[in-house]
Amino acid sequence: xxxxxWKSLGVKLDASLNMERQINSVRQKCYWTLNNIxxxxxxxxxxxxxxxxxxxxxxxxxxxxxxxxxxxKTRLKKLKSILNxxxxxxxxxxxxxxDLIPYYKKAHILPVDERIFFKVCLxxxxxxxxxxxxxxxxxxxxxxxxDHDKRTRARPADDYLRMKLPKMERxxxxxxxxxxxxxxxxxxxxxxxxxxxxxxxxxxxxKNYLFDRMGIPKL
Length: 219
Known about the structure:
Layout: E1 7-8, E2 11-12, H1 20-38, H2 46-62, H3 73-91, H4 101-107, H5 112-128, H6 134-137, H7 147-152, H8 178-187, H9 191-194, H10 199-213
Antiparallel strand pairs: 1-2
């Protein structure tokens, strides 16, 4: 079987796992859908356009997007151009130089980098709370407070919802492993978010946290 035909769960793979084939495929599908919607945009109000974009385009971008963690910015630029095009379509932004962040805020849509971080943190949450498949749980190890941490108060005794950070290898590709990226992403979250026991509330608070981190106020 040739390398350009590899596919797993609908994700197109290549020998180097650089996700270029998958991103190009997603980009093509999303632009095709967006162009079709543009053909009827005069019949659509803002709310309907937002709904269509989320259901028909962003859903394609988000599919298995945790595989994009720590990809080069030049590769993610293709996905960012799709999302920017969607935001411009929703709010009829014709000036290319306009700042789109206020429109992202209005639509409550996270930009590409934050969407990838969100997905990895959600997978990490499911690992920590026993909701994930065994193969994901086997990739990470929890970091419980040691007796030394408790004696020195270097870390709260009840802050046990952390993952052990693995020893990083020199290869750049190692930073894209779930076992390396997930602990760093998960541990960076505030303790109060990591401690949320309801997954729906966790997603809501995580999304608000990411908007707040970007300087976008919570809704």
